[in-house]
Amino acid sequence: MTQKLNSSEVAQASQSLQSACENLSKLKNEELHCELKNRVAEERKLTHQILQIIIEIDLRKLYLPMACSSLFDYLVREIGYTPASAQRRIDAARMMQQVPELGNKIENGTLKLTQVSQVQQVLRLAKKANKTQLLPSEKSDLLARLENKTGPESELILAKEFNLSPQTQFKQKIQKDESVRIELTLSKEQMEILDRAKELLSHALPGATFAEVITSLAQRYVKQRTGVNTSVKKHKSPSPSTESNSAAEVKGTQNISGKPIPSSVRKRILSPNLGCQFKDSRTGKICGSKHFLQVDHIKPRFAGGGNESFNLRPMCSSHNKFRYTAGC
Ligand SMILES: [Zn+2]
Fold first, then answer.
1. How many angstroms separate the alpha carbon of residue 229 from the centre of ligand 1?
2. What phi and psi, each to the nearest 5 degrees, are found at residue 294?
3. Cα–ligand 1 centroid distance for 325 (angstroms)
């Protein structure tokens, strides 16, 4: 169990950390190396504790009264994780519920969150394709085989284990800002060449993405063949999200009893501009989710509420269910 620090302990810990950081320039190389190793070990221990807290929050569905439509939504909007970081922690926390020893493996560094997330992704694919699920003991065995492996090594083990056929189809999609999303498969040798080019360009383009590397190489080729300099505006990538951006899904809009809600009214209430209107009674925060929206009666039908516009509002399915189960 995690222990809550009181305010003076927090202040003391923060002060000692600050003083340690101020003295870093005085440390010898070996001491500095040890300092980092110790801090990283503490970070892993903290990650284990965070996963335990996430499990408890998930079990209590604590995010619902806080106007978050899901655990993912809560970790991103309330806690401040990026979508990818939130998903990795959810994947690891849920796996830890079935394979409790996973926590210690994360804490001692033999397994990383990204590897657990890779396993969860593959298991989701396998469940969809074969409708089969691994037993907790089989999941435990699988995780044991990934210990101390790198990300690509784990990926290879999982691809072979689940017989995942390589996706070779080229996909190209024009997005609303006219950028183009491309999905392609490179052979091992092609990827090595691209990695090498990225490495050689690392001084000219530090931290470049593959899109920037490919563009830079193309610009050089165009210049070499035509003498023309081409330039590109800096493209701001949208943050990755595991949630789809599809329009609100229309579900459950007919009353248990009485007349159905007229389609024109339903359409207006479920307008994509309006998100879920569930409000956190403590903070006044509105959920705002645009996924799986349903029409909610402010005054329920069973209490005499009607289909008038002023009695209707959009609500995500999680909060609609929560509202009635929690009686709020
Ligand atoms: Zn909601």
1. 50
2. -130, 160
3. 14
